[in-house]
Write a structure and sequence with these properties.
Strand 1 (11-20) and strand 2 form a beta hairpin. This protein is globular. It is of the alpha+beta class. The chain has 3 helices and 10 strands; from the N terminus they run βββββββαβββαα. It has 2 domains: 6-45, no CATH class; 49-184, Nucleoside Triphosphate Pyrophosphohydrolase (Alpha-Beta Complex), CATH 3.90.79. Helix 2 crosses helix 3 (168-184). The strands form 3 sheets. Strands 7-4-9-8 form a 4-stranded mixed beta sheet, sandwiched between helices. Strands 1-2-3 form a 3-stranded antiparallel beta sheet, with no helix packed on it. Strands 6-5-10 form a 3-stranded antiparallel beta sheet. It starts with 10 loop residues before the first strand and ends with a helix.
Length: 187
């Protein structure tokens, strides 16, 4: 379903960096719209990340529970982490799975990518399915504190459908994999 979208373009005229921090950069762009008028776009630049739907041989999903400061609450999410600039996506995913859950995977299958908030954030999250898990020891970052949990896939799907997992990447990975399983049989 390809359509001509050339007219839906915006041209950047001027960029001002408002903040350049450890994790993100905030930019204010003056842009020209397709009708010739001008507008302002505020954009968060982020290197992107990877999330991993890790399934045990017993069809359990690995979750991490951790405190999320912006929401002032403990969340339950699938393992994930930030890409380092220039890092390969799969390398990041495998590193994060080892760091957060202390495991490696025999297979690491791409499940696609998602734009968490495309209106103002340039972040892209790459989703993976990890199977054939081998468990070892966590090696968390110095400022990272989390618990690892195992939840049967069917229960994880119920949690996603019941709004008990508000994290977008976790919901999308679980729901996408559930549909894949339904369409193709167990993947």
């Amino acid at each position: 379903m390809e359509q001509n979208t050339a007219h839906l373009n915006e041209t950047m005229l001027h960029r001002t960096v408002l903040y350049d921090g450890k994790i993100l950069r905030l930019e204010r762009d003056d842009v020209r719209l397709e009708d010739g008028s001008e507008a302002i776009r505020e954009v968060i630049r982020h290197p992107g990340g990877v999330c991993i739907l890790a399934l045990t041989d017993a069809d359990e999903v690995l979750f991490v529970r951790q405190f999320r400061y912006p929401h002032a609450q403990v969340t339950m999410e699938i393992p994930a982490g930030k890409l380092e600039y220039g890092e390969e996506v799969e390398t990041c995913g495998r590193r994060e799975l080892l760091e957060e859950c202390g495991c490696t995977a025999d297979s690491f299958t791409p499940l696609g990518r998602l734009y968490p908030t495309p209106a103002y954030d340039a972040e892209v999250i790459h989703m993976y399915l990890a199977k054939g898990l081998h468990f070892g020891t966590q090696s968390l970052d110095t400022d990272e504190f989390l618990d690892v949990m195992r939840i049967p896939f069917g229960e994880a799907l119920d949690l996603a459908l019941a709004d008990a997992l508000p994290d977008a990447k976790t919901q999308i990975a679980i729901l996408k994999y559930a549909v894949m399983r339904q369409k193709k049989g167990t993947v």
